[in-house]
Amino acid sequence: MKLDRLQAYALSLPHTTVVAQWGGLVFKVAGKVFLVLSLDGHLLEGVCFKCTPDEFDALTALDGIGQAPYFAKRHWVKLEDPSALPEPQLRERLRRSHALVAAGLPKKTRLALGLD
Fold this sequence. Notes:
Blueprint: H1 3-12, E1 16-21, E2 24-29, E3 32-40, E4 43-50, H2 53-60, E5 65-67, E6 76-79, H3 87-103, H4 107-113
Antiparallel strand pairs: 1-2, 2-3, 3-4, 4-6, 5-6
């Protein structure tokens, strides 16, 4: 998936913001990270996102996908090769990452954002 399409999709998810941080782009919902794009200039170098424990084991068993540095214990993976997942599957993983992070927000925040 190309960087511009990946950014556009991530920003289409409810209440998403993006900041330049950690040498890349960090996408957040209500201030909580759900996606990190590692960049080398304007080239996409890696994609990190949250998943469930079961998904974590299945994803890290695939070629081109490993544990995300500093985030792995919280079930984050890194696509070292952004083409390791087909675009529709990557979009679904990003949507689920957003949903997992949003579900962990305080109930008051979820209600205020209409995420419950």
